[in-house]
């Protein structure tokens, strides 16, 4: 019987490169070309051939700068897909699972067909380790907001073991890794428009999503529509908490899925005031006393402190150095009482010197600390600082970073919370960030080494993008209006950050508004013509 192994001379370069990937996987680590040659049994290989195979189009192997052979992006994707196919898919009575579409911190999403009518849905199954609070929270939010204003439509739920599986509208979409490489300006306009429409509708009802990112926004370049998903972390900023009502429930049966329908409570609600999002910029400027000489005086103080590190930052007692706005009504601030509240200076101890500072460890009351939820790289400064005041504006920052991700072709800020702060400082400087830390009483979360005068420097967004982009040619096509929009989203102080409603009215979305206006006029014309025709036929 003849051998089933192809003769070495009949192998194509592509087949040889995939064989070398198999050798790499057996090693379980990157390797030098010479080591791969010694382990290659299928064909005669040389180090030069291995290097050449690394460079062919679509090669599954890649030669690093330090001359190690490793799996390329194409090779990695192929291996991951193979492993995913080997994972057992769940079995549901009323649905046929076609494939796994994605998995996150709280659950796995499957593409499925309903047995009795063949309709396609997305089924989100929570992980066994997921807290029921998060599952119920998402169910509550989707019942209220799903299917409107570019929020994913909720179709119902059913029990699988002890878990509630959510049945959602299935949306054909382009994955973030494709969008960051291929999205164009026209598509970016609709991407941003749909995202801010979704956020605006939530924020008007006092709901903060808290995990806005490209992975939680399903955008179709074919339809130019996007849908906000994943409401596990969503939170209401209203006084009254709503009870969970399972308005739609799938009951598993042999051939059909029956619904238990109850009317979800959809009454309007009034937002309470929160420390980050309800005040206007002008009101804040009136409310908060500011330094007489502003940035210039601040720079001067920091320079003096660098020369005399042990000198105290101010002679007035700490109680007098705190901002006096809370004690005085807006508009009636005595300018003689305005005192500078500079960035803190090292004093040689564990305490931090300056107005409104945290005391040394063990002294006084501990500062209230807020949560640091969301996805790395997309969290707002007030979240990174663990402010107890986190409002709707955290979503605006995340939306701005999402747009930045698409025009750069990569994540703009990375690392743990402290590293994120350092990355933001490279763009925005440390002065505004320090002001936010003071306003929110989170000075203890501010990295002390960022008090260096060099960290005060800010950069123009466009210049910063040019230094950090992976899509330089695309960056040259970005209009000024988009840079301006992102700039307004990435204002460090949440009180001065743009709102979702204001973002929708931004110049960048003018083509979207014009297109929608024309569609409305066309629908009216068609409706009018239909009415006229029906009258003539009577």
Automatic annotation (TrEMBL):
It holds the Pfam family Pkinase. GO terms for biological process: mitotic DNA damage checkpoint signaling. One of its GO terms (molecular function) is ATP binding. The keyword Nucleotide-binding applies. GO terms for cellular component: nucleus. Residues 258-281 have a biased composition (Polar residues). Its EC number is 2.7.11.1. Residues 282-291 have a biased composition (Basic and acidic residues). Residues 242-294 are annotated as: Disordered. SUPFAM superfamilies: Protein kinase-like (PK-like) (SSF56112). Keywords: ATP-binding, Kinase, Nucleotide-binding, Serine/threonine-protein kinase, Transferase. This is non-specific serine/threonine protein kinase. It is an enzyme of class 2 (transferase). The keyword DNA damage does not apply. Residues 95-509 form the Protein kinase domain.
